[in-house]
């Protein structure tokens, strides 16, 4: 059964299902696959389009608007932090860089101790992580797969004697073309779109793309479906689609799922919906080398530096560093200045290497919904996180110099050009809103799980505390930042929640 | 002092508001020249806004000379309505207010290249977050148009996609 296109559906249509899933990314794809395998009638609604490998043309101007929410222009309400998220069958797994890291054990312990999360300890999740990693072909990247940008980081780590190492990924048949963030035309990503959605379809799931969930249907205590709009290619509403189902599963990302709950007038006696949003924001720092780096070629991220990353509660070392090369538009937009000065940097594009430092943030933001139904992300970077990012900038600069850079560019406004490692110590503070580009690729939280309804929107099993039959299985579950890329944990928690859903469906079918 | 009856006061305020608005509209609308076929094809921008974007793009991309107006108009037309509104308001600010803050009593599109650079630099480094954000948005529009072109890639030594489509 192929994917159905909402853009071909005008008028009104009603579907009946056992479970309707909103979103087809890591969480939605895993839920669709696992629940379809139980024999349940599954309907998946995906707001974005279905894009196959042959449609991935590796052009920034074409793919960024297609693959990303709000044409890759989504940001916090003060426009200080760009927030990237996926919008197509497969969600963010279509454009992510395939990094696979489990949730740190300390974070899972913290969730249990501080946030009353049960059933999600390291030992609870171990068999689930193993099954996910096996099904998605997760393996460690080899030294031979390091591109020049990653070799710079590797060299810097070694020369400074810092902690770090090779990352794991979920690719098979990768040609190392270097365009992961624009979708893979070689179909190498073992992601939701490649592995999970096809398996769900083969087991009878119905997947409808170009279908935006507008509202959860409920009576205040029981979910009964989703009301959605079918969309034309330009995003305009052309029809109505109602899916009646006793079980609703939300997997539309931290931003999307939180916004849908807020739009649906669900009971929320402790005002949990949308709160506790973490963005894991990052900055990029560039180094200029004598030799060609050509950082746009090869696997974008294969090495990490964990020298300043430690997950004990209250840690003041909360920086995760990896490489961050962008194609010309992404690089040009990040570089400060304009005119001749900016051009001089772009003419050295092949000689640039770039690193990113992301903060395992303590700042807690909020998802809201505006009067016209749009998501709004309120997030003001706290002082503690700002200091961590200052540490991140300096650490990236040290790594670049140790990796052989002649000069280091910090893209603050005004730009800082460092001519030697000694200059790092004299650097002024650079982290301020709109003073340096900040990006979030890992929004988390907003509908956190936990057994205490005063502190969590959903139970440890992922079910809404007040509305039966409504489940969440995406990154909005996290009570805190994870501090590392979340995709594998989203797949794993989705599998965990899906087992509860399956048991419930089995029980109700007798 | 003579006090006006409330109704006459309100009418006077309304009339002066209309006159001021008409004056602004006249200032805004006058002195701009754009080919009718271009003006008629715009989806999001008015003709004068298009010309402001072109002027800003000319400085962002200097010494390269490409016309970014059409692509910018197309891009802006696809943005959510709030972003579209913010960008067009910022264009108004760039054209009519930003130059005054630096002592230039001509609109941005009538300034010399050096004066335009001065205005843009002040926006880029402004202490007001919204002005910096607005500048970054216009800068991104210009750079997106330039660096999506194959001829631009060869200038910076970038190979481009490894597949042909």
Keywords:
heterodimer; A: 510 residues; alpha/beta; seven-stranded antiparallel beta sheet; six-stranded parallel beta sheet; 28% helix; 22% strand; B: 165 residues; mainly alpha
Q: Roughly what fraction of the amino acids of chain A lie in strands?
A: 15-25%
The number of E-state strands of chain A comes to 25
What is the number of E strands of chain B? 0
- Global Rg of chain B: 20 Å
- In quaternary terms, these chains amount to heterodimer
Most extensive interface: A-B, 45 and 40 residues
How is the main sheet of chain A built? 7 strands, antiparallel
Rg result of chain A: 22 Å
Strand content of chain B: under 5%
Query: End-to-end span of chain B in angstroms?
Result: 77 Å
Please tell me what the overall shape of chain B is: globular
Which structural class do the helices and strands of chain A define?
alpha/beta
SS-derived structural category of chain B: mainly alpha
Major sheet size, sense and barrel closure of chain B: none
Q: Whole-number average pLDDT of chain B?
A: 84
Give the helix tally of chain B: 8
Question: What is the ordering of alpha helices and beta strands of chain B?
Answer: HHHHHHHH
Structure, described:
The complex is a heterodimer of chains A (510) and B (165). With 510 residues, chain A is an alpha/beta fold. Chain A has 12 helices and 25 strands. Chain A has helices spanning 26-37, 60-67, 105-115, 122-135, 148-160, 192-202, 253-263, 328-334, 339-347, 383-402, 422-425, 487-508, and strands at residues 4-5, 11-16, 19-22, 42-45, 81-83, 139-140, 164-166, 168-169, 206-209, 211-218, 223-231, 237-244, 247-250, 275-278, 282-288, 303-305, 319-323, 352-359, 365-369, 375-378, 407-410, 416-418, 438-440, 444-446, 470-472. Chain B has 165 residues and is an all-alpha fold. Chain B has helices at 6-29, 36-39, 47-60, 69-77, 81-101, 113-124, 129-147, 150-156.
């Amino acid at each position: 059964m192929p994917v159905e296109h909402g853009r071909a559906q005008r008028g009104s249509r009603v579907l009946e299902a056992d479970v309707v899933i909103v979103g087809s990314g890591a969480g939605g794809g895993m839920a669709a696959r696992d629940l379809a395998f139980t024999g349940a009638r599954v309907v998946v609604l995906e707001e974005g389009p279905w894009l196959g490998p042959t449609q991935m043309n590796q052009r920034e101007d074409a793919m960024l608007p297609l693959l990303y929410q709000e044409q890759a222009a989504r940001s916090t309400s003060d426009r200080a932090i760009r927030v990237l998220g996926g919008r197509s069958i497969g969600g963010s797994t279509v454009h992510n860089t395939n990094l696979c890291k489990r949730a740190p054990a300390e974070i899972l312990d913290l969730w249990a101790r501080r946030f009353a999360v049960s059933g999600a300890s390291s030992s609870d999740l171990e068999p689930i992580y193993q099954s996910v990693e096996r099904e998605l072909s997760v393996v460690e990247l080899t030294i031979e797969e390091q591109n020049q940008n990653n070799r710079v980081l590797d060299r810097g780590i070694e020369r400074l004697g810092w902690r770090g190492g090779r990352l794991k990924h979920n690719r098979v048949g990768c040609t190392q073309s270097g365009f992961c963030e624009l979708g893979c035309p070689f179909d190498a990503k073992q992601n939701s779109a490649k592995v999970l959605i096809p398996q769900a379809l083969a087991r009878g799931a119905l997947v409808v793309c170009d279908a935006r969930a507008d509202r959860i249907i409920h009576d205040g205590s029981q979910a009964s479906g989703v009301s959605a709009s079918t969309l034309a290619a330009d995003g305009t509403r052309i029809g109505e689609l109602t899916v009646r189902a006793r079980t609703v599963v939300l997997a539309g990302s931290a931003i999307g799922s939180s916004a849908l709950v807020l739009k649906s007038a669900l009971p929320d006696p402790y005002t949990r919906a949308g709160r506790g949003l973490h963005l894991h924001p990052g900055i990029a720092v560039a180094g200029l080398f004598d030799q060609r780096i050509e950082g746009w070629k090869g696997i974008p991220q294969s090495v990490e530096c964990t020298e300043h990353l430690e997950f004990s509660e209250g840690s003041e070392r909360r920086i995760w560093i990896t490489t961050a090369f962008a194609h010309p538009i992404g690089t040009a937009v990040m570089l400060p200045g304009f005119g001749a000065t900016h051009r001089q940097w772009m003419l050295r594009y092949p000689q640039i290497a770039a690193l990113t430092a992301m903060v395992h943030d303590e700042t807690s933001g909020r998802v809201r919904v505006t009067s016209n139904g749009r998501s709004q992300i309120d997030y003001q970077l706290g002082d503690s996180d700002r200091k961590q990012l200052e540490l991140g900038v300096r650490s990236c600069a040290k790594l670049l110099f140790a990796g052989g850079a002649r000069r280091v560019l910090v893209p603050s406004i005004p730009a800082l050009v460092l001519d030697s490692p000694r200059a790092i110590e004299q650097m002024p503070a650079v982290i301020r809103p709109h003073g340096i580009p900040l990006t979030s690729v890992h929004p988390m939280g907003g509908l956190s799980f936990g057994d205490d309804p005063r502190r969590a929107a959903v139970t440890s099993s992922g079910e809404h505390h007040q509305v039966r039959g409504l489940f969440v299985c995406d990154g909005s579950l996290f009570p805190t930042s994870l501090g590392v890329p979340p995709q594998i944990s989203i797949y794993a928690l989705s599998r965990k929640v899906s087992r509860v859903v399956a048991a419930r469906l089995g029980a109700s079918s007798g | 002092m003579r006090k006006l009856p409330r109704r006459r006061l309100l009418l006077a305020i309304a009339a002066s508001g209309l006159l001021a608005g008409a004056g602004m509209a006249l200032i805004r609308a006058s002195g701009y020249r754009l080919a009718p076929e271009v003006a008629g094809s715009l989806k999001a921008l008015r003709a004068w806004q298009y010309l402001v974007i072109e002027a800003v793009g000319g400085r962002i991309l200097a010494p390269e000379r490409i016309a970014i107006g059409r692509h910018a108009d197309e891009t802006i037309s696809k943005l959510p309505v709030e972003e579209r509104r913010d960008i067009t308001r910022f264009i108004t600010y760039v054209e009519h207010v930003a130059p005054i803050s630096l002592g230039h009593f001509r609109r941005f599109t009538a300034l010399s290249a050096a004066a335009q650079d001065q205005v843009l630099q002040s926006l880029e480094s402004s202490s007001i977050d919204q002005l910096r954000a607005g500048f970054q948005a216009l800068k991104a529009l210009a750079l997106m148009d330039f660096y999506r072109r194959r001829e631009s890639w060869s200038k910076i030594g970038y190979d481009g996609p490894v597949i042909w489509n």
